[in-house]
Fold this sequence. Notes:
CATH architecture of the largest domain: Alpha-Beta Complex
Distance between the termini: 12 Å
CATH class of the largest domain: Alpha Beta
Oligomer: single chain
Strand content: 15-25%
Order of helices and strands: EEEHEEEEEHHEHEHEHEHEHEHHEHE
CATH topology of the largest domain: Quinone Oxidoreductase, Chain A, domain 1
Shape: globular
Largest sheet: 7 strands, mixed
Number of strands: 16
Structural class: alpha/beta
Number of domains: 2
Amino acid sequence: MRSLRLHEFGTPGNLQLTHVEPGPLGPDEVRVAIEAAPINPSDLMTLSGRYAVRPPLPSPLGGEGVGTVVEAGADVTAVRTGDTVLVLPSPQPGTWQDEVVVPQRFVVRADPAADPVQLATAGINAATAYLLLGFGGPRQPGDWVVQTAANSGLGAFVIALAKRAGLRTLNVVRRADAAERVLALGGDVAVVSDDTLLDRVRDALGSERPNLLLDGVSGPVVNDLAAVLAPGAHVVNVSALSGQPFVISPLHLIFKNLTVHGFWLNNWIATADRAEIERVYAEVTTLIADGVLRTEIAAEYTLDDHARAIEHAGASGRTGKVVFRK
C-alpha cells in the first residue's frame, strides 16, 4: 500500500511516498481503508517536530480521516466490517496512507451517506468546537462567546454551533478580509486584532460581559480580551498560532476570578467514556450530514501529489481546508 512517511523532523522535503506492506491486525484493532484525510496545522507541526505528538521515525502522518472498516480484530465490538468510520487523533498518526490499523478506541461510526471530505474534518475541529462551547456550564440564548482565530476551520464550527444554540459570537481575526469572511459565515461581530481592538470590542459589547473566551492564537491579544470578560469567566486555550506565550495579567486573573483551561482533544479522547465519545461524534456527524456544519474546502489532492498539497496547506492567507482524497 502507499504510505506518506516522515523520515526526519524538519521540512516537507523529508516526506516520502513509499510502498509498504500492510501492518498486522491485533485483536483490539481495526483496519480502515482511508477515503479522505485533511492536512491540519497540527500535522504540519508534527512534521516540523514542534508538536506534542512525536512518533518514532520513519512514521506515516495524518491525524484524522474517514474511511471504511475492511477488517476487525476478534475483540472489536465498537464497529463492524463495512462501517464508515472516523479515524480519531491518537498517539500514532497514519491517515495519509491507503489504509491504517488503529485500536478500536480511535474509530467511531459515521453516516455513510454524508460527504466523506466533510466527515474527514469532523474528528478534530467539529468535536473540539462542540466541547469548547460547554466549558463553564450551560449558556442562555443571547449570551456572547468571544473567540480568536475565528477564520480557522475550528472557528467556523464554533460560529455554526453557537448560532444553532442562539448564542452570539464576537470574532477576532488578524486581517480585514478574514473579518469579512467570518461575517459571511454568520459571526455576529468581527474585529481585527490591531491597536483599536479593545475599543471596537467594547463598542460591540456595550455593557455586556461575556463569560467564555476561546483562544487559538495566544500572545497579548488574550490579555486585551480578558479586560472585557465577566467575573468568573472561563478562558480556554487550544492553540498558539502566534507562536507567543499565553498572557493574562494578574489584575484580570485574580480580581476577576477567571478560570483558565488548556484543551487538547487527544486528552479527551484518551480519558472520556466510550459512550460519551460516541454521543459527541454521533451529534456532530449528524450535523455534518444535514449540512448544519460544513468546512470550506480549498482543494483536494491525491497522495501522489503530496508536495503541492503540503505547500498549499502551509500557504499564508489560505482559506479552506486542504484534503487528501483517494
